[in-house]
Amino acid sequence: MNLKRRSALQNILGIASAPLLINPINSFGQQGLGPIDGYDLIITGGRVIDPSQKFDQIADIGIRNQKIVEIKPQLTKKSAQTINASGKIITPGLIDLHAHCYPQASAIGLPADELVYLTGTTTFVDAGDAGANNFSAFKHYIAAQARSRMYAFLHISSIGLAGFPVGEMKNIEYANIDLAARTLNENPDILLGIKVRESLDVVGENGIEPLRRAVLAAERSGVKGARVMCHIGNAPGDLSVLLDTLRPGDILTHAYSGAGNNTVQNGKLIAAALEAKKRGVIIDVGHGGGSFDFTIAEPAIQQGLIPNTISSDLHAYSGNSPSIPYLPNVMSKFLTLGFAVNEVIAMTTSHPGKIINRDPLLGTLKNGASADITIFDLVEKPTEWLDTKGNKRLGQMAFVPFQTIRGGVPYGRPFPSPFSYS
């Protein structure tokens, strides 16, 4: 994290900074290339929480050749570099299933790598910044050059979010089914499916026709398991009809939006929302700058609409909003709502890792997994959290990013020598 920003946050939360303990050895030489007689990086003394393995204990993590090779108390083999995580929580690298990371082509996208110090996120899923017309540049000039691991949903609108804040689905001709299907078919390594925004200010008079076209594009692509991510917030028409259109495996994002025509009406969760969850529709938070309302989330969760994934919907507007929806803050809000630490970590690691379904070792700290790791301070101090409608809740704990490692290479110190990353 940027030192000035981290210092300010530490002052707010009342925590002291802890220097990294770094072994000055820079190389193993030839000996380091043989059997595992040491590590490139070792993280020591933290509370390791990996929901994918139901692992929760104080342990060290040994990393070699960008992979996790050993987790157990008090690893004794030598290491080129060391991070002291005593008193901290170590988790698989956070996965943000809904973010906006297409700078300079999307009107709201931010550079993923610039966000890491604030978010502790190692894998970002871009939620529809690119449509078929401008996806190629996202793949070749953004994702390919980022340190962060990146996936995406292709917008059903061929122009993506280039025209934001003008609603991209007011002109239904942008929703080219065959073009979106072909683009998805040609890029299954990085594209997870089709994104559509179903809000009145986005679709105008077109109702849920953009959603219908998104579903057709996903099916016509021929990509097994292609999902639709559907944004709601003051959705058009009968919300039950929209929810009934979603298939098992599709994603309902902004599930606790307070923007109007919500999943909770007059204090009661609508039946179609619960039925959607029961048939396998994935419930995603998608906090954003206007899409998370405590007064919707609380009754929805109490009545059974429990999220599968916690995501930020971080972009140029939401990142400046008073509710500061960086992923660790959104996680902290769900601690405030009564979820356990391990549940919240699962909803930002193993759960989205399975939904992405491109690497069986994504979102886990199992041996052989890419060494994507987030280290937190879990600060126990009363902290007031704000939703996007101005409602406040008082929490007792907060996740504060301390260090993030992607593919065995930390962001910031300790630097490997020679410096390189994959």
Task: Walk me through this protein's architecture.
By secondary structure, the protein is of the alpha/beta class. 24% of the residues lie in helices and 27% in strands. The protein has twelve helices and 17 strands. The strands form three sheets. Strands 1, 2, 3, 4, 5, 15, 16 and 17 form an eight-stranded mixed sheet that branches. Strands 6-7-8-9-10-11-14 form a seven-stranded parallel sheet, sandwiched between helices. Strands 12-13 form a two-stranded antiparallel ribbon.
Give the overall pLDDT as a whole number.
92
Instruction: Tell me, briefly, the overall form.
Output: globular
Order of helices and strands: HEEEEEEHEHEHEHHEHEEEHEHHHHEEE
Structural class: alpha/beta
What is the rounded Rg? 21 Å
Q: Give the strand tally.
A: 17
Low-pLDDT sequence parts: 1-5, 14-19, 21-34
In short:
This protein is of the alpha/beta class and 422 residues long.
